[in-house]
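#dry-run=false #mode=assembly
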Amino acid sequence: MTLWTPDPTFYPSPRDAREAPPETRAYIAAFDRKGERPDALAVLDTETGQVIGWTDLPNKGDELHHFGWNACSSALCPYAPHPHVERRYLIVPGLRSSRIYVYDTKDRVSPELVKVIEPEELGKRAGYSRPHTVHCGPEGLYVSALGGYGDEGPGGIAVLDHTSFNVLGRWEVDRGPQYLAYDFWWHINHDVLVTSEWGTPSMIEDGVVGELLLGRKYGHKLHFWDLRKRRHLQEVDLGDQYQMPLELRPAHDPTQKYGFVGVVTSVEDLSASVWLWHEEGGKWAVRKVIDIPAEPAPVESLPEVLKPFGAVPPLVTDIALSVDDQKLYVSAWGTGEIKQFDVSDPFKPVETGSLRIGGIVGRTPHPAAPQALAGGPQMVEVSRDGERVYLTNSLYGAWDDQFYPDGVGAWAAKINTDGFTFDERFFPHGEDFRGLRPHQVRLQGGDASSDSYCYP
Amino acid sequence: MTLTAVLLLGAFHGVNPAMGWLFAVARGLQERSRDRLLQSLPMIALGHLASVAMVTVAADVTGSLVGGTALAIGCGVLLVGYGLWRLLSRRHFRWVGMRLSLPQLAGWSFLMSSVHGAGLMLLPVVARSGGHHHGSLGLMIALIHTLAMFVVAGVIAVAVYEFIGLRILRSAWINLDRVWAFALVGAGVFALIPGNTY
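#status=ok
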């Protein structure tokens, strides 16, 4: 466990991380919608897209979603450096079961289970359930959670010991008005943590609830916190028509204080948007910088949930920012489109590329296979060098079923960013995933959403 | 010999990125300001001095009361025990917070040095120097030690900031925590061997 020199996957700065060698493996969380067989971690060869490793979970019905590494470049941070630990374990929460699994990836292709944190431990120690995002921080592992323990909320963040993986407790000292939770990340050198909002367990677990959505009851705010004192500083409301600000992508450059958040939909016109948060006069402010309109479609081609609207919403459900903070990738899961933006001026993103694949109405095939494709680009991950982008197609069990009622399918794809084209060699799909639906991708050695850097 | 040991241990502490030069570099890089780096270093040294002096002065005063041999044995046992704990424990110093004022930075350095047992490493020197100093020798040892630490940390911080760059960390940052633990145990054994003088 203890090394003599720092783990070679830790980089002091995002500039250094850009020069990391290309990843050879991708880990994908895959789940069984029916909960009849165990969810799994699939391991892909990033060259060929072949499934080269597979580990079934010991239980059923976990609904894997997001996951993260036990250690990352933040171990080099100067105030508590401990860079001789290994990036080795994957921390894998079950979003539905509230279990958290720890898997060892060292010296093996298929990860091996080393620890299970039961829902009771998370609940009793931290007061939370439905664990979601995992980030490796300087004093432990931070895990966000959507629900309270035995209760709808508030959701928040639990801290885990990063060697024993025991749940240490609730992160928040003073949560202020925050109640809904989803994603979080930080501006680590500014001692600022940011959280976003989705909904409580009952608002999401059986699918999107139309009345709640049209009643503007899903999350629409960002929360800014003092990372050191664990106190709520400020909430920023995007406006209640902007429902579900989800994935948070702060600039990797630790001297910067801005980031991007994707908003799933506006209830006014079903458009999706990407917002920039930034500091203005000592306070946090937000601004809509990307707007993606809904696409009109014949009613008969739409699923029930969309028939009243006669249009396909883009449904921006994930975004990814390259490690050099120059490119933003936005996946529109509804329309089946992945967009690339130049965000060298974060206030004025410029669209530089777009690819269609899947989509509620479009059903665009992958260039490697001619058949119509369900699902859309959903989770998007960027390699550290910024040259490859990986996509998977499932959003969240109950929501998949609403928007792709005839089956969301299962596939992953890879884009070469030089030219912005699909890599035709890489297209695991269908039975490659053994009936499970793929969600988040994590790249071996780290990726654009796994590491925080303390040096510019 | 004693003076050499005090200086060498100071240099050893100064080299360790965890003791503060890295924090000074990070503070400088964050603001693109060498001044900020240079202001940080004395604060880090001050915290280190307070941590080390607390131990050396206490040991010196204790030595005046209980005599040299008892002090040496006590120090030796303490050091070996603490060193072994550091060697076997996987815990590390926990802290969150980059934006510290200069006094807070001194406080951070004090905690960091104390948790690592920086002052303990100097105990054999105090023990071997005999009693009846009522703390003055302990203070002198801490001052000389910290001066060496400050000079070494300062040279490294400026060199890394100006010329070398932080990429050096990836290859050159050997696990000093482990070396440190061995040093604690070694110092303890040394203190326990009768008749040794540093």
